[in-house]
Amino acid sequence: MGSRYGAKIRKREQAVLKRQRALYECPKCGKKKVRRRGYAKWECRACGAEFAGGAYSPETTVGSAARKILSAIAPPK
Ligand SMILES: [Zn+2]
Fold first, then answer.
1. Ligand 1 centroid from CA 6, angstroms
2. d(CA 25, ligand 1 centre) in Å
């Protein structure tokens, strides 16, 4: 039982590491050059923009930026 639990944890850690190493799209310049710099800290290697995001992926920041742009484009009802 103990070994099964350990294998499960290791699998989840691998998934987290994969997300941490991946490059993400920059909400500022749109290039896929955003890398994790520290806990919830992200930096774009293309334009140098620094921003805070999720601990393991900047999805929080990118998502809110996209929502902001969408609401700006959407015509008022
Ligand atoms: Zn950028």
1. 38
2. 8
| CB-based contacts of 32-38 (< 8 A; 24+ apart in sequence) | 34/58
Architecture of the domain delimited by 2-73: Single Sheet (2.20)
Angle at 49 between CA 44 and CA 50, to 5 degrees: 90
At 14-36, the pLDDT tens digits run 877 776 677 888 888 999 999 88
Q: Where are the domains of the chain?
A: 2-73
Record the pTM: 0.51
